[in-house]
Write a structure and sequence with these properties.
Chain lengths: 121, 724, 167
């Protein structure tokens, strides 16, 4: 069965790009438009990997990660922050919240796939 | 794997446009004295999102401007800086530039303008200066995943004003990361060698040079990183001991993993498996086929269906629309995926099909008139149901095209602000009824006329603060944009509390230009003069409302939407311009009339009454052609059979019917032979396959399947003047 | 649409193209079949005010408003009758749909590019500007018409010229 990935981003273009790239590579991808939507969708299903943006309306990425880590299903699922901010402060925030790693925007589909394969194969 | 990035361009353009619009709205709403932190955050987020997308899709010029803008906005939202009017101005300007840049990319071009550098410099200056506390910029040093580039180029490459441009170049490069100028001596003295440590791609560096000189002339080479554990693509990474995957931080090019964090078990497993697979994989080439069953080899991703295209190539056009795209609604509150983006074409196709359904029903109903309603009760019931359902369906489909007028109103806070400040006037804008819905096509076409009217009101209507004070008015003028639904129409009003129109001056001007006017013209007739070609009421021509070209264009644009304009004005109190528009351009409530053997459709909205003339009611007045004496007035007689050159036997005027119509050209009496029935008709363009016909605004298909022309009363009244 | 039909010189000499031939007066004409949408009988038309006499009016073709031109009137080819034998060729000219009344439709023929000779100045009813060439088929001579150019021309009055030149 195809691995399932949730991509959380308020930008439709980025979301589509991620989703399209990963689907082409054979993953099953679900999109969420912000942290809250991501949380709802994560609850309703069980994903193998979650990508989340940091800056989003309603709920930001770090909060989403914290909330996800509180769910039994997501205690150890890889969660990667997809963000334009590469500063150390943000990284340590993410790490404290329970993120598995980060990926800096802008990135290209190749990079994305490389990372996904590294993480979930 | 190659993914054609151009396929995402249109979505990016759409969302960037939405972000820019939202940013502008928020900026205009922002209370500088007491900025709402949420609003500051939202403004930041808008710029941030555009930057992210622009970087990803390779629009580096857009990314660069948003990056600089974001720096300022970030400091604002962190309260490191207090917002000033200047900052808002600069941000608005940057927004305009971004719009232009995006529009250019959409055309497959690049927007180049010296303004970009100016605005960027201004933004930078603003984000550095005036800090509340001297918070040092976050270390400008190379961000974590970073490469160093060696840039070598001829000292005279930048041409004559070399020094200045060199400084500009250095500043632009410093935007990207850490720049060291004149790094090594091992280049000829006529060449410069710089080093730039940055996270951006080579492309972005090339682009910066491209602004100033031919980037081909510049050697850009990547320096091998020393010390840092980063490997470019980090594939060797997993070679460590199996356990280390779990615990160690892994940092790669633009990507990292936190050692020991949740999820790392999974990563370690994957790495483990990959190592196994690799070994298996090696074995696989040497052993017999069938071996790979044990574990699937590391698969290359499925071949993309899309043709390979230059990734991030800024020049390629986005693919044509027509795709469905899940999208948050463009409103402030994202609504999950409860809305979808559908191309207008598809909606129009739907509207056409429903139109066909309505016509088919009309045909059936007409055929059924020959049947006995009692004996064929079921058919009649069915027809009645079909009619109701197709009407409901039509309305539902039409509502898809309906958009709140806020889409056009929203630009006006900006227009008013800019226009007022250019004229040194104080003006506030009040919006009423922004949720009023009308057809998308009309909304787009309403923007220009409204823009003109609003600017005109500020320019000619609203007085200067000084004048207002002298007249005992509040110093600040007010423009009100109001929209509402009234009896199947949308009414849009632009009103101001300014000086009002000057009857004497308009009359003098009309006399001077030889514009014909009735004797003792009413105020309304005088006000209509401002719509005459070449008529400007301003004493001095200004840049804002131009030279009187425009008001006539405004009226023509509105007429083209089957709309009507009226003016009310009171000296010293202000002017109100009322635009009445149909809800949609797709259907029309009309009256079918017969002229000779032809059937025409007359829009119901223009009909006042219809009368059967009495002998002597129609007469010919010298210089005015045929007129009809109705009540107190003489109305011009519009004889359709004459205008359309239809052959008919001489019919006495008493046997015809006069339909009194209200047109933008004033009232008139339309002479027809018979009134047939009221219909709701589907408007079809004649111009799809033919061309524009004077006096006809479109065509429709009647219940018998035949085509009927829809009358354009404004044009008919004009035509009747020409053919006495 | 059919981009390659706009410039017949680009046609590979190996492949042949199909043409619909019709008669007008004493002459036989051929048009690229890719421009032909359908052939139908004559329906009652709705007149268009102040249009040239050869534009009969418009018809409703499945919801599309289609103008109908009578080529016999256009080229003054004598008596014109409308009965159940009257033929209308519905053309699709770069997306615009136009109906054309002719004396009769005769054939669909396949021609190689080299079978079409360039047209000398001759006295056809049609201006040579709209003629791509002549083809000889057994004993018949067929005048190959550039129907797109003809229908877009000013003299047909089908298109607003300002718009046409802007396109």
């Amino acid at each position: 069965m195809a691995k399932t990935i949730l991509t959380v981003d308020d930008s439709a273009s980025i979301r589509q790009m991620v989703s399209f790239t990963l689907k082409e590579a054979g993953y099953s991808v679900t999109e969420a438009v912000d942290g809250q939507d991501g949380l709802d969708k994560a609850r309703a299903s069980r994903f193998d990997l979650i990508f989340t943006d940091q800056n989003m309306p309603r709920m930001d990425g770090v909060t989403l990660i914290k909330q996800l880590r509180a769910l039994p299903n997501y205690r150890s699922v890889p969660i990667l922050m997809l963000t334009t901010e590469s500063g150390d402060a943000m990284k340590s925030q993410g790490r404290a919240a329970g993120a598995t790693g980060w990926l800096v925007k802008p990135f290209d589909p190749k990079k994305l796939l490389e990372v996904v394969r590294k993480v979930i194969g | 794997m190659t993914i054609d990035m151009t396929r995402f361009y249109q979505v990016f353009f759409d969302e960037a446009g939405e972000h820019l619009a939202e940013m502008e709205t928020l900026l205009l709403e922002l209370d500088i004295e007491a900025p709402d932190p949420e609003v500051l955050n939202a403004i930041f987020r808008a710029a941030h999102s555009i930057k992210g997308g622009a970087g990803t899709f390779g629009f580096h010029d857009v990314a660069r401007v948003t990056h600089i803008l974001e720096t300022l906005l970030d400091r604002l939202r962190k309260h490191e800086l207090a917002p000033t009017v200047e900052m808002i101005d600069a941000t608005l300007q940057a927004g305009d530039l971004l719009k232009a840049q995006l529009a250019a990319h959409q055309r497959g071009e690049e927007f180049e303008d010296p303004q970009i550098a100016e605005v960027c410099a201004r933004l930078e200056q603003l984000s550095q200066g005036g800090a509340l506390e001297t918070v040092p910029e976050p270390p400008a040093g190379p961000a974590d995943p970073c490469a160093c580039w060696r840039l070598v180029f001829a000292a005279d490459l930048l041409g004559a004003s070399g020094d200045e441009r060199e400084a500009g170049l250095a500043a632009a490069l410093a935007e990207l990361g850490e720049l060291e100028r004149n790094v090594s001596a091992d280049v000829p003295s006529d060449r410069l060698a710089w080093r730039l440590c940055t996270e951006v791609e080579r492309e972005a560096i090339v682009e910066i040079f491209d602004f100033l000189c031919d980037p081909e002339e510049v050697e850009i080479t990547r320096e091998e990183q020393t010390g840092g554990g980063e490997e470019e693509d980090g594939f060797g990474f997993f070679e460590g001991a199996p356990g280390s995957d779990r615990g160690a931080n892994q940092e790669l090019d633009g990507f990292g993993l936190f050692g020991g964090s949740p999820g790392m078990d999974q990563v370690a497993e994957t790495a483990e498996r990959e190592r196994d697979e690799q070994q298996q994989g090696f074995g696989f080439f040497e052993t017999a086929p069938g071996a790979p069953e044990a574990a699937p080899p590391v698969e290359e991703p499925a071949t993309p269906r899309s043709p390979p295209a230059a990734e991030g190539g800024a020049g390629s056009r986005p693919p044509a629309g027509g795709r469905r795209q899940p999208q948050p609604a463009p409103g402030r509150q994202p609504q999950g995926e409860s809305s979808i983006r559908v191309s207008v074409e598809k909606v129009d196709q739907l509207i056409n099909l429903v139109g066909e359904l309505v016509i088919t029903h009309a045909m059936l109903a007409e055929s059924a008139t020959a049947l006995d309603p009692v004996a064929q009760e079921r058919i009649f019931d069915g027809l009645a149901n079909l009619e109701r359902n197709s009407r409901d369906l039509q309305q539902a489909v039409m509502s898809i095209r309906m958009m709140p007028i806020s889409f056009v109103f929203n630009r006006f806070p900006r227009v008013v602000r800019d226009t007022a400040s250019a004229l040194g006037k104080k003006v506030t804008l009040k919006l009423i009824g922004e949720d009023t819905e009308l057809d998308k096509g009309l909304i787009e076409r309403l923007a220009d006329p409204l823009n003109h009217l609003v600017r005109n009101s500020i320019d000619h209507g609203i007085e200067t603060a000084q004048q207002r004070i002298e007249q005992g008015k509040p110093e600040t003028g007010e423009i009100v944009l109001a929209a509402s639904h009234r009896g199947g129409n949308v009414v849009v009003e632009v009103s101001d509390d300014g000086a009002g129109l000057d009857r004497e001056r308009l009359l003098a001007k009309a006399a001077e230009r030889g514009v014909a006017l009735p004797d003792n013209p009413t105020d309304k007739e005088v006000w209509q003069l401002i719509f005459a070609p070449g008529f400007s009421t301003a004493k001095a021509v200004t840049d804002i409302s131009g030279r009187g070209v425009g008001m006539d264009v405004v009226r023509r644009n509105i007429e083209a939407m089957n709309g009507r304009v009226e003016i009310d004005s009171e000296p010293g109190r202000g002017t109100r311009i009322t635009i009445r528009l149909p809800l949609t351009l797709a259907i029309l409530d009309g009256m079918s009339v017969r002229v000779c053997n032809e059937t025409f459709i007359l829009p119901l909205t223009v009909i006042r009454e219809s009368i059967r003339p009495q002998a002597g009611q129609c007469k010919t007045l010298a210089g005015k052609g045929k007129v009809v004496h109705v009540g107190e007035e003489y109305l011009p007689l519009v004889a359709l059979h004459q205008i359309f050159g239809l052959s008919r036997q001489q019919v006495a005027a008493e046997e015809t019917i006069l339909v009194i119509i209200e047109s933008n050209e004033g009232r008139a009496a339309l002479q027809v032979d018979e009134l047939l029935a009221q219909h709701q008709v589907v408007i079809k363009s004649l111009e799809t396959n033919y061309r524009k016909v004077e006096g006809i605004s479109g065509a429709t298909i009647m219940g018998d399947g035949r085509v009927a022309m829809i009358l354009d009363v404004d044009a008919l009244v004009r035509l009747s003047r020409k053919t006495p | 649409m059919n981009e390659d039909s706009q410039d017949s010189t680009t046609v590979n000499s190996e492949d042949s193209r199909e043409y619909l031939t019709f008669t007008l007066g004493d002459e036989e004409y051929g048009i690229d079949i890719l421009n032909v949408q359908e052939i139908r009988g004559y329906d009652t038309v709705t007149k268009i005010a102040n249009s040239p006499h050869f534009i009969k009016g418009v018809i409703n073709m499945r919801g599309v408003i289609v103008p109908i031109i009578d080529m016999r009137l256009k080229f003054e080819l004598g008596e014109v009758e409308y009965n159940q034998f009257t033929v209308v060729i519905i053309l699709n000219i770069t997306g615009r749909v136009v109906g054309m009344v002719v004396d009769g439709v005769s054939d669909v023929i396949a021609l190689h590019h080299e079978q079409i000779r360039s047209a000398p100045e001759f006295g056809a009813v049609l201006d040579t500007a709209y003629i791509d060439g002549l083809a000889t088929l057994e004993e018949r001579m067929v005048i190959m018409v550039n129907i797109e150019r003809l229908m877009n021309s000013e003299e047909m009055g089908l298109v607003d010229q300002a718009r046409a030149s802007a396109e």
